[in-house]
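Archive record
______________

***
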Amino acid sequence: MTPGIDPAAPVVSARGVRKSFTTKDGAVVEAVRGIDVEVRRGEAFGFLGPNGAGKSSTMRMVGAVSPVSAGELRILGLDPAVDGPRIRARLGVCPQEDTLDNELNVRDNLVIYARYFGLSRAVARERADELLEFANLTDKARAKVEELSGGMKRRLTIARSLVNRPEVLLLDEPTTGLDPQARHVLWDQLFRLKQSGVTLVLTTHYMDEAEQLCDRLVVMDKGLIAAEGAPLDLIRTHSSREVAELRFAPGQQDAALPGVEAAVAGLRARVEALPDRALVYADDGEAVLGAVHDAGVRPAATLVRRASLEDVFLRLTGRTLVD
């Protein structure tokens, strides 16, 4: 941490922040429509929402590479409008797309990037070796980037974002496109970073990722914040303990829904109809299935699961995260 910085002060403070763009035909698009956000030092904070919710636009403003259109934004206590270089020197940025240099080997990708921050050659090489070990890529140090798997490339991108020992690491959709095993490896790396004191700010549209990584998060939709809190608190507040999913044969769901609603009326349950299934929110999902069966309703397939952040999003916005 930079000397003289209050450890209790937020690393990100946004008040009424807006971001607007003008299209080629002159239309004004408001990507972020007035948000209030506070990120505490040492936590993992997430922006959860579908594509187009305003997450990436917010991250670019927090990264001091895109000016705010209105409102007040402070990063590490500094104003990005006048202190952009000082802020960026203390941030690490992992973009949504890997921007590695395919002409260089894995180690040189780190060494040369470290030189951009003014590190000497000796220090840059030492730092590169540390980060290769952290990313479990030491045995790939001399390999070309194009030889790496998608998960390895992502780990290298995160390692590169750490060459300047940042106080805050910004991650835009960090595991998009990765298989489940690679995602879990990456989650472990990010957890270790947080344990070491690095503040994580990430965007994601994966509900399980948000639940695994985030101490707190905001649910974003159409440039606004719909809710804020710890993942479990949001689920408790906006959803039931369990969800029963009912799938019907094509063309049969609309006719079956009145029967489902009548069957669960005494269970304090709530029914949501999606294009491909009906969701019944209740404290006891098995009781829902029993009531539906006793009422003579026969879904083609059923599933009982615990409620998730996607259910929170559906309750708050009327649509799913993948809309």
Notes: The domain at 240-306 is CATH 3.30.70.100 (Alpha-Beta Plaits). The chain has a mean pLDDT of 93. The chain has two domains: 12-232, 240-306. Residues 34 and 74 are 15 Å apart (CA to CA).
